[in-house]
Amino acid sequence: EELQxxxxxxxxxxxxTTLARKVFTDPRIEYEFCNNRAWNYVSQEYNxxxxxxxxxxxxxxxxxxxxxxxxxxxGEDVRRHLQSHxxxxxxxxxxxxxxxxxxxxxxxxxxxxxxIVLTSRHTDVAVHANPDPDSPPHHLRFLTDDExxxxxxxxxxxxxxxxxxxxxxxxxxxxxxxxxxxxxxxxAGLLLNKDKTRDWWEKVAQSVxxxxxMNPEQCMDILALSYNHLPYHLKxxxxxxxxxxxxxxxxxWKLIRLWVAEGFVQVTGDISLEDRAEENLEDLVDMNLVLVxxxxxxxxxxxxxxxxxxxxxxxxxxxxxxxxxQIKGFVQIxxxxxxxxxxxxxxxxxxxxxxxxxxxxxxxxxxxxxLCFALEETNLPREHLSFIPQAFKLLRxxxxxxINFCGFPTEIMQLxxxxxxxxxxxxxxxxAKISDLWNLQTIIVHTKSxxxxxxxxxxxxxxxxxxxxxxxxxxxxxxxKTRKNNEDPLVGxxxxxxxxxxxxxxxxxxxxxxxxxxKLGIRGKLVTLVDNKGGSSMxxxxxxxxxxxxxxxxxxTYPHPPSEAKLPDLPQxxxxxxxxxxxxxxxxxxxxxxxxxxxxxxxxxxxxxKEYAFRGQRWEPLDGGFPLLKIxxxxxxxxxxxxxxxxxxxxxxxxxxxxxxxxxxxxSGLWDIxxxxxxxxxxxxxxxxxxxxxxxKQRQEKQQQQxxxxxxxKLIFYPPDL
Length: 722
What we know:
Blueprint: E1 4-9, H1 16-24, H2 27-33, E2 37-41, H3 48-59, H4 64-68, H5 71-82, E3 88-92, H6 97-103, E4 115-120, H7 123-129, E5 138-139, H8 145-157, H9 164-175, H10 181-192, H11 198-209, H12 216-228, H13 232-239, E6 250-251, H14 252-262, H15 273-286, E7 291-295, E8 301-305, H16 308-321, E9 325-327, E10 347-350, H17 354-359, E11 369-372, E12 378-379, H18 388-391, E13 397-405, E14 420-425, E15 429-430, E16 442-447, E17 451-454, E18 466-469, E19 472-474, E20 497-501, H19 508-511, E21 519-524, H20 527-530, E22 550-555, E23 582-586, E24 590-591, H21 595-599, E25 606-609, E26 614-615, E27 618-619, E28 631-634, E29 641-642, E30 654-658, E31 678-682, H22 686-705, E32 714-718
Parallel strand pairs: 1-4, 1-5, 2-3, 3-4, 9-10, 10-11, 11-13, 12-13, 13-14, 14-16, 15-17, 16-18, 17-19, 18-20, 20-21, 21-22, 22-23, 23-25, 24-26, 25-28, 27-29, 28-30, 30-31, 31-32
Antiparallel strand pairs: 6-8, 7-8
């Protein structure tokens, strides 16, 4: 019952994080520690405040006041939140005894079985955190030659086998990685993406033979092999991971927007810049240079990161090419100027101490990108912002999401070369002048306001591709009389994303100007959208969006509850975008009988029904519906009885049920769907979980009796003993 620190020790690349992650994500562990688990990358140069905020973000809702607290107060707040609960905290990659001493005050010994898992490269740090001789650190060992060869084969050939003519060379390559898993998987990526010829494998074997992986510095040379053999168009993409803080989990949508703005992605054929960038990322993942952190429901990568040794490789290679300048832990010293250093760099990334650094008024005549990744929110006085347009005149990328502005920073209107901008603050208007930035491709605005009025004439911004706002934005079209035909210059042919807009924005004058829109989120009083006046509604305008693949309909009726403004009905299926693949509904309070209209959508693959999207005790789908649906997610609802079979969902692959606390049983017909691979039941009615287990057991017994190969969906329950 005592608080225990469990340490995992080993050199970089040996698998400490992988082992800790296996434990952290185990369903039994998730259940035992419920909502009191937090994972924190501490790293070599850590920020105590960022670690505390990271823990708080996992165990409670962060508030604006928390960002303003001192480190000591935050530590006390962490301790207060953990005091009455059993908790599991992972502190990954702790480098020094001091780091542990700085953090341990936040972890109470509340005698209820709480645990801290600490990973480190240094045994003395692990022993310092837990000096108990009965609980020594777990030292990871190197792989044996046989284990190394087994791992290399799995990574290169997946489920296949190695050709006999390559086996001896393969064993030689694996042996010279000296049992270091990271080196093995990176070399595997090099072998995987080239022709599997004896000449190529001999070349790799000779290169690996010249290094000894037991030495971290020489191990870096092994990792550099893969970088050196990257195609030219992927080298800049890989080095760009170095601009992010170590162990930073990177949203892929943001990474792709940045790559495009930086000019790393070139147009070839009909494929879009974003799709080409995603292919580049997949290539880096296949080469084992980039780790997938999370995936979306459709299998595409949602977030990613790089191993800290590969992050070090990015920094090393970037330094040789003056690829970027990294600022962290900056202390202003009058006799020391960093301005001269920036003369040779194209990118500036600030990881901490944003205000002291900007207050020093740095200047970079050749800097094209100014990026802030500090976790702490910084309130920047207006006088410290005005110098940026003069000091960094050629900026293409400006990501100052870590800086809080009380009003939209109009000074940035002078940066005429901007392609990408991300800002944060308390403002309700995107000013008209921003439309003068005609090179802008991506606008990201995170505001404390619920709504954002877009005064900018985005129809004149012909390069604009993505408009991301957390507040519901109000779009305005130009006067209708200015639109003549498809050749009208006031048509956003490049616009692909409008993340969150009000229903009132969905007029013909607006949506007719977005013919290539791929993603659209609508949040607000959705009755306005579907209200039928004179035989038509604003929803009808969505049917003309031929390229729209993703649509979100979120019924937000603040300050009134959404149940007071529920949707009376859904539009007919042919009024939805014709090529819609992914649909999300929330708080719409529809009746299940209206689901038949969604079942007729010919290309729908993912359907997410979040909080009370539908309401009613019984759902009986119609035969022949949902012809291409692969993923079905049901959120909180009062559904009690559900019938389903292969006639209703012929291609279903994944079913997720969350907080369906009144559902009595899982439809047995789902087991007749041959394509169904996985079923997740999260906090559902225990009787529903019991029915799923009984159906699975009966099916397995029948298959054994008939000597059939066991098949059926994988069942995942949360909590595990549901």
